[in-house]
């Protein structure tokens, strides 16, 4: 691919700032939204920025979120060393930096709450009536059993009354088949990578999928979700997450470094976002950590 052609200023897939302001007026007006052609990692960019800023452990009037969007990432990443790849215009690659007025121990379930926000964003878009997005614990959004979106939350700093977080979100819009081949190749070259769910694209349910409308829907959903999580934690998101649980009532395997540590029937999540499994040895509540979840038939 010709890099100069990829980032042509008149490329039809570029985000339309005027339309964005119409569709997401409050975030577009009040938030700091940066859109760049290319960077290493939007998460890394915002972590560096937040760490360089003065820290206020319990801001009475917290700063508005800062958003960084890139059309291409050269070092995009997901959990457990997996590659996150996308061609310019084919995926929404973004991060949100925000100081939550919660200590780090109060962030349990945040990735699940953001997953619910992604579902709420998708509900604002003109998807096919047959589309059924679902949530896979702890941080994936599925479409027809393929991975549509991933969430990666990292901490820039923490204090007694506040934590600066960076919420990375990647949503595939087009090119799932080509992307699957790229991801397979990249993960084969990463010795630490554990294979993940095959990619899916939003265009499967919305042929006109575009970055502007998707970003606007996501900003509106996050604008509603962050203050609610800050005040109430994961509890108010639990039912919505449970209703969209992709593996509810199905036998699953929990993996650590590719090794099975338990299996059982997935029964939901608790108020802290811990996965609930009815295992042979009895009920288990599993914290996120660095574990991976698969359907039992997907056992490597």
TrEMBL record:
Keywords: ATP-binding, Biotin, Ligase, Nucleotide-binding. Its EC number is 6.3.4.15. It catalyses: biotin + L-lysyl-[protein] + ATP = N(6)-biotinyl-L-lysyl-[protein] + AMP + diphosphate + H(+). It holds the Pfam family BPL_C. GO terms for molecular function: ATP binding; biotin--[biotin carboxyl-carrier protein] ligase activity. Residues 28-230 form the BPL/LPL catalytic domain. InterPro entries: aa-tRNA-synth_II/BPL/LPL, Biotin_CoA_COase_ligase, BPL_C, BPL_LPL_catalytic, Transcriptional_repressor_C. It is an enzyme of class 6 (ligase). The keyword Ligase applies. The keyword Oxidoreductase does not apply. PANTHER family: BIOTIN PROTEIN LIGASE, BIOTIN--PROTEIN LIGASE. This is biotin--[biotin carboxyl-carrier protein] ligase.
């Amino acid at each position: 691919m010709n890099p100069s052609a990829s980032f042509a200023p008149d490329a039809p897939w570029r985000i339309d700032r005027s339309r964005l302001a119409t569709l997401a007026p409050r975030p577009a007006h009040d938030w700091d939204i940066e859109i760049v052609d290319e960077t290493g990692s939007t998460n890394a960019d915002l972590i560096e920025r937040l760490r360089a800023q003065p820290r206020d452990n319990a801001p009475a009037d917290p700063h508005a979120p800062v958003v960084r969007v890139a059309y291409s990432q050269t070092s995009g990443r997901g959990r457990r060393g997996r590659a996150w790849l996308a061609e310019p215009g084919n995926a929404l690659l973004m991060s949100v930096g925000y100081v939550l007025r919660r200590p780090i121990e109060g962030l349990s379930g945040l990735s699940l709450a953001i997953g619910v926000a992604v579902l709420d964003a998708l509900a604002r878009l003109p998807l096919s009536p047959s589309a059924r997005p679902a949530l896979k614990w702890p941080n994936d959004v599925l479409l027809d059993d393929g991975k549509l979106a991933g969430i990666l939350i990292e901490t820039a700093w923490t204090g007694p009354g506040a934590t600066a977080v960076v919420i990375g979100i990647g949503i595939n819009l087009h090119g799932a088949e080509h992307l699957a081949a790229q991801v397979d190749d990249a993960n084969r070259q990463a010795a630490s990578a554990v294979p993940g769910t095959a990619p899916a694209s939003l265009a499967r349910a919305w042929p006109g999928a575009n970055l502007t409308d998707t970003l606007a829907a996501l900003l509106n959903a996050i604008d509603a979700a962050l203050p609610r999580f800050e005040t109430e934690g994961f509890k108010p998101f639990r039912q919505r997450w449970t209703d969209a649980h992709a593996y509810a009532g199905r036998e699953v395997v929990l993996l650590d470094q590719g090794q099975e540590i338990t299996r059982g029937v997935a029964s939901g999540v608790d108020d802290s976002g811990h996965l609930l499994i009815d295992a042979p040895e009895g009920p288990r509540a599993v914290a996120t950590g660095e574990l991976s979840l698969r359907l039992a038939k997907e056992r490597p």
